Amino acid sequence: MIVVVSCSKKKAPRPCLAYQCYRGPYFALLLKCAFLWAKRENIYILSAKYGLVTLTTRIKPYELKMGKPGSVTANKLKRQAASRGLLSEEVVVLGGLRYVNLVRQVWPGAKAPIQDTVGDHMSMGPQMKLMNQWLARKAS
């Protein structure tokens, strides 16, 4: 099983490892929750610019929103997944609807526990509340 988490708008000001580059509170929660499903080596970030990256991939900061011209496409994501031998993996995707939809173009059966629980169009607030509940249950 692999877990794919969405990137975030807020980024570090200079090149760094992917998990250190993304700085938003939503991303931080996504990453913490990813560990509920997978080990570090099975967690990937879906970057709007770079596509599927490992937590330790070194990246440069950028300004690009998923779905905008120049952002990663389903074809690129599929090529990246194929080159890593991930196309037959079971996938959990944690992130916003654009990310879930893109991941499901490559892995149609991908599980999206946030959207399955709070709905497709819920704001980050209810999503973050849900993730905090998951983490609190794990801690107890």
How does this model look, in words?
With 140 residues, this protein is α/β, with parallel strands linked by helices. It contains 6 helices and 6 strands. A hairpin with a 3-residue loop joins strand 3 and strand 4. Helix 2 packs parallel to helix 6 (124-139) and helix 3 (74-83) packs across helix 4 (97-106). The mean pLDDT is 95.
Tell me briefly what this model is:
This protein is of the alpha/beta class and 140 residues long.
* Tally of helical runs: 6
Helix content: 40-55%
Main sheet record: 4 strands, mixed
Please state the average pLDDT score: 95
| Strand order in space, largest sheet | 4-3-1-6
How much beta, percentage-wise?
Answer: 15-25%
- Uncertain runs with pLDDT below 50, 5 residues or more? none
Radius of gyration: 14 Å
The quaternary structure here is single chain
Silhouette? globular
Overall strand count: 6
N-to-C series of helices and strands: EEHHEEEHEHHH
What is the CA–CA distance across the termini? 25 Å
Category from helices, strands and their pairing: alpha/beta
Overview features:
alpha/beta; about 140 residues; 4-stranded mixed sheet; two-stranded antiparallel sheet; about 15% strand; about 40% helix; 6 helices
